[in-house]
Amino acid sequence: MVELIDLSRQSLTGYGIELRPVTPSDLPSLRRWRNSPEVSSQMKDSSYIMPSAQRRWFERIQQESSQAHWVVWFKGVRTGYMNVVGQGSLKDQPYLEGGMYVGQSTVRSGLLGFAIALMQLKVVFEHARVPVYQTVYKATNKAARRFNEYLGYTEDAVEEGFVKISLDEVAYVATKARMARYFENV
């Protein structure tokens, strides 16, 4: 088991993907993906990110014990981003929040989004051992709604055009069992 203190600095594998902590060499890809209309249009803050702002973000997250940020690698190619965020240290939280997206890359898979989401839940429930995971999606994003319903999320609220959803450990166990047939060595 990965020590929680080192969680944000650990590479993790599962569901056919690898999570690697964000490094300076990842910043151009992350910025390009985040600024793409496909991704930025689904964010609360859709403003264009300049290289200097991306660098400041990276420097800030290096100092945060309440957050962990990873670049997603699939078939040896950088292909997405994932994070988890707490209210303090990632230990002993009543819940964690987070986000993820699939970037444009030379490798794509219909299951890639599910693999990232399942790894995110694995981090929350198996590594951090937190009882609830929460996230949001844009209310107009019907694909995100179907995706999250399939994963077993419960809708908690709609605020300012975003749907707040959550998943507890019981639902995670059921989701993991249901999705196992799609992934080897879950």
Description of the molecule:
Helices cover 32% and strands 28% of the residues. A hairpin with a 2-residue loop joins strand 1 and strand 2. The protein starts with 11 loop residues before the first strand and ends in a 7-residue tail after the last helix. The N terminus is likely disordered.
Count every helix, treating DSSP H or I runs of 4 or more residues as helices: 6
Helix content: 25-40%
The strands making up the biggest β-sheet line up spatially as: 1-2-3-4-5-6-8-7
- Give the percentage of residues in beta strands: 25-35%
Category by helix and strand content? alpha+beta
Low-confidence stretches: 1-5
Q: Give the termini separation.
A: 15 Å
Largest sheet: 8 strands, mixed
Question: Which series of helices and strands comes N to C?
Answer: EEHHHEEEHEHEEH
Computed Rg? 16 Å
Query: How many beta-strand segments?
Result: 8
Mean pLDDT: 90
Shape descriptor reads: globular
Summarize the structure.
The chain is 32% helix and 28% strand.
What distinguishing features does this structure have?
alpha+beta, eight-stranded mixed β-sheet, disordered N terminus, 6 helices, 8 strands, 186 residues
What is the secondary structure topology, with strand pairs?
Layout: E1 12-14, E2 17-21, H1 27-35, H2 37-40, H3 51-61, E3 67-74, E4 77-85, E5 96-102, H4 112-127, E6 132-138, H5 142-150, E7 154-159, E8 162-168, H6 169-179
Parallel strand pairs: 5-6
Antiparallel strand pairs: 1-2, 2-3, 3-4, 4-5, 6-8, 7-8
